[in-house]
# Entry
Amino acid sequence: MNNSKKEMMKIIKKLLIIIPVICGIALFLVMKKNKNLPNRSDNRERVQAVRVIPIEKMVVVPRVVSYGYVQADRTWQAISEVSGKVVFMNENLKKGHFIKKGELLLQIDTTSYGLARSRGVADLMNVDAQLKELEQSQKNTQRLLKIEKQSLASAGQELKRKRELFKNGYISASDLEKEERTFLAHQASVNNLQNNLDLIPSKKKALQAKKKSGESAVSQQQLDVAKTQIRAPFNCRLSAVNVELYQFTGAGIILAEAISVDRAEIPVALIPKSFFTLLPRDHQNRIGQTPDAETIRQAIGIKAKVRLPMDEQNTFEWDAQFSRTSESMDLKTGAITAFITVDKPYENAILGRRPPLVINMYVEVSLSGKPLPNRFVIPRSAIHDKKVYIANSENRLEIRPVNVEFFMMDMAVLSQGFKPGELLVLSDLVPAVQGMLLKSTRDAQVLVSLKQHARGRIGGDKIK
# Structure
């Protein structure tokens, strides 16, 4: 009985091995019988659809867009040059108010300076009186000297006569001595008068020097009186006020600060390569060894626009001009700072519609150079590792190396490398195979946009 069970178990094990093998063979035969033969592909060449534009020569206006903060062209600090109490203060002397050129802002008490001036004038009058007295004394001395000289001459003749008489024994020695004393007295008087007359020029010079010193003192005192009035040097807007009425102020104290409203200035940082694209290509356009700022500005010929984008519909714009560049490059960024000026930034302001160009406003600055003729302009995205894709006359891809003259925003500008009328491939081909077959579709909108951007005629509603 046990043997029969063992035999049965062996048979079952063999069946468990054989049955899966038989099922697998049967399934393979069924799949082989029902399989479909693979479709054979045609040997036709693959065609790649691409967008293209015809390449044309056009005039390009080099442009660079940068951003900066508006600054005042001129600033002014009202610094007191004299000390004293503030006795007058303009009612508009408040931060934010507009002040006209020459308008009186502050008046410092002039009492002490007026008294000093009066004393100086009195001293001058005293010196003038002394000069007149000296002049009269000179005239009197000259008259007396003339008389004394005549008396001396008479005394000399009398002395000579008496000496002859004494020699002949007609007069005594005492009479002769008396006459000699009279002669010497007249001679001493003439010498004294002559000495006094000789001293008058030096006394006159001393008084004249004293008068000049007094006049300088009076002028300084008059200047001090004038310095007690502080007036606006130009049309300005007050940015700070640091004084109150009846407050004492010392010399050198900043009483108020103001900024010019006649002109605003925007410094913008430019990459040197971008700035050089704005410069003229005429190598004969020299500016000389010692040029002035205006000569350089005219030679460069850069035009400028300042814009303040408010939203998608409204952009405020101001005419501007390129003024100058900084004397050196920035050490940290290596950028060149260009200064753009806007005349009369408050002139066209309209309440509720158009703001003025105020200090610290963040604006966009567009700079444009002189137009460059006969240039090829293509989208920047059409440059692939210094190469472009061209659809040739047989609608096949030509991969061509090119040298870009400069990049401008989303465009690349080239002076050579194409023939007018060739088709530039705009699509990005992956992979790009030389000679591959293309199906070209012209994108007219891209060409129109390129022409507009090349000439600087960018569409969009702007409030001017």
DSSP finds six helices and 24 strands in the chain. The CA atoms of residues 7 and 266 lie 107 Å apart.
